[in-house]
Specification:
single chain, alpha+beta, 3 helices
Length: 75
Amino acid sequence: MQPTRTEEHALVELLDVLLERGVVIQADIVVTVADIPLVGISLRAAIAGIAKMSEYGGQAWVERSSPPDVGPQGS
């Protein structure tokens, strides 16, 4: 039996789920030299569609990402 889906459909479905439901990725990185921690980095990223971001309180992000209103030109 052969699979009925191609890889293209799987990628599109994955992207659809990510935009519809959203995902949060968190990573903590520590750079050490000779067993001495020098730098600590904490990363967090939220990936979702605009509708989902605004639903969960990302309205400030939506407002910052929209183009500014252009007023009348001239002097």
